[in-house]
Structure formats: C-alpha cells, structure tokens
Design brief:
Flagellin is the subunit protein which polymerizes to form the filaments of bacterial flagella. By secondary structure, this protein is mostly helical. It has seven helices and six strands, in the order αααββββββαααα. The chain has two domains: 211 residues, f41 fragment of flagellin, N-terminal domain; 34 residues. Strand 3 and strand 4 form a beta hairpin.
C-alpha cells in the first residue's frame, strides 16, 4: 500500500487538532473549575451529578420544613407557658376564696380577674403563626375558639353543617424521605382536652354563685389542668429535639453530597496544570516533527 504525502498530511493535521482540543479542554477545566459542563463530557459522572442535584433540592425543602416545624413548636411552647401561668394564677385566686374569711363580695371581686384569665386563655387558642392559626388544625385559616370565651356552651367557634365542632387534625411536615413530624397540637388538645378552659369557667361560675364546694372542685380541676399542660410542654420539648436532630442529619447529608459532587465535577487544579504543561510540550514537539516531515520532497532522496 502506497502512503502518499496527502495521507501523511491529513493524519498529521488530525493528530495536531486532537492535541490542540485536549489543551483547550484543560484550559477550560482550569478556568471554570469544573471538568463536566454537560452530560456528554462524561455520561456516567454526569448522570450521578444530575441525581445529586435532585437530592440536594429535596434536602433544601426538608431543611425549610424542619425550620418551619421548629419555629411552630417553639411558638406553641411559648403559648403553653402562658397558659400554665394563667391557670396557676387562677388556682392561686381560688385558694384565697376557700377559707372562712372569703365573702360573697370578695368572690365577686376576684371573679372579674378570673374572667379576664379565662378570656386570655381563650385568646391564646387563636394565636397566629404567619397567615395561619397555630392551633387551627386542618382548618388553620379559621380562628378555632371564641374570644371572649362564652359563659356557657362550646368554646369552639368552628361549624360543620350548622353544628359546632371542635378543632381537629394537625399539620404534618416532611423532614426526610418518608419521615414526617407533627410540630404542633390543635386547640382541642391544648385547651379542651387539658380541661384548662372548662376549669377556668367553672371557677368563675362558682365564684359568682358564692359556692365554696364548687370553688374547691374547680381548684382541683385547675391543678389537674396544670399537670396536663405540663405534659404537653414535655411533648413539645421532645418534638423540638427530634427536629433539631433531623436538621443536623440533613446538614451532614448535604455536606456529603456536595463533597461527592465536587469529586465528580470539580477540577483538581494542580493535576490539571501538570497535565496541561505535558500536553503543550507534546503539541510543540508534534508541530516541530510534522513541519519537518511535511517539508520533505523528492530532492531529499536524490
């Protein structure tokens, strides 16, 4: 087979172009800091980078949910502490009106303060968190409790088919793959199930009726209500700890994904510089050799 000058020239040009492309690519890697700028650069690593990007977007949403959950739980803790103080104050008032020194007149005087405490407790049930009611449950856009509190009947102002219903349901947040948390209780759990509002109203009624036995009974209910609220405070503390742990885990996962992505995509500058110098040296040598080969003519063989 005869090798002509045109074949030698074409092959030489192809090798030079390939070498020049390799140099240009290394220069781009060094200037941009990344070795993979499109999937076709490395299909396997490119696919991994796409999957990492999707995972990191999910982690970002999980982190937002965790922050929101912690803020909600801490807001509820603040309300529970206020409710504890309110019920405790009512219990202290009740104790002063059980003894023989209490009169109908003194009980009417302190009843006014108890009524204020009852209305305060009821208003706490309508605490807002952003644009929603913190204790609204699955009807977070509606105030769950009457404010001021009614003297009789249901404390809930929610209606269903014309009938009063207690708040129900809870907001859940996803803080990991298939991991959900419930950051807050609803108004039924905090204000009705603990017996806080009913105990306050019973004390108000007993004071107005000048009924010592009823005052004693209301005092016992208030003490039980205080214990129930304290139980919720403990539960909230556990929830906050759970979400704080989830937040730490998410941060660790995010850091690991960033490191993995960096290993796949980012340029190792020192290694790239050495490789660039080597390719430039080879390219210059190839240019010199090619120029000598292409410069040969028939006269060189005579």
């Amino acid at each position: 087979m005869r090798v002509t000058n045109s074949i030698i020239t074409a092959n030489s040009k192809l090798r030079l172009q390939t070498g020049l492309q390799g140099i240009d690519r290394l220069r781009d890697d060094i200037s941009t800091g990344v070795t993979i700028r499109k999937i076709s650069d490395n299909a396997t690593s490119g696919g991994e980078i796409v999957r990492i990007g999707s995972s990191m977007r999910a982690l970002t949403q999980f982190k937002r949910n965790t922050d929101s959950g912690i803020a909600r739980a801490q807001a509820e803790e603040g309300v529970l502490n206020q409710l504890t103080n309110t019920v405790t104050r009512a219990s202290e008032i009740a104790l002063t009106q059980i003894g023989t020194t209490a009169t109908a007149q003194s009980r009417l005087v302190v009843k006014a303060e108890v009524d204020q405490l009852l209305n305060l407790a009821s208003s706490l049930g309508n605490t807002r968190f952003g644009d929603e009611y913190l204790f609204g449950g699955n009807r977070a856009n509606e105030a769950p409790l009457f404010d001021p509190a009614p003297a009789t009947g249901s404390f809930s102002r929610l209606m269903l088919a014309g009938n009063p219903v207690d708040p129900s349901g809870n907001i859940t947040l996803e803080v990991g793959d298939n991991k959900f948390v419930t950051p807050t209780h609803n108004a039924t759990q905090v204000f009705l199930d603990t017996d806080a509002l009913a105990a306050l109203r019973d004390l108000s009624t007993a004071l107005g009726d000048n009924d010592t036995a009823a005052i004693q009974a209301a005092t016992a209910r208030l003490n039980t209500a205080t214990s129930n609220v304290q139980t919720l405070i403990g539960a909230q503390g556990a929830r906050v700890n759970e979400m704080e742990d989830a937040k730490v885990n998410l941060a660790t996962m995010e850091m690991n994904l960033k490191m993995f992505r960096s290993d796949l995509r980012d340029t190792e500058i020192d290694q790239a510089m050495v490789e660039l110098v080597g390719k430039q040296t080879l390219y210059q040598a190839a240019m010199s050799a090619t120029s000598r080969i292409l410069g040969l003519s028939l006269a060189n063989y005579l």
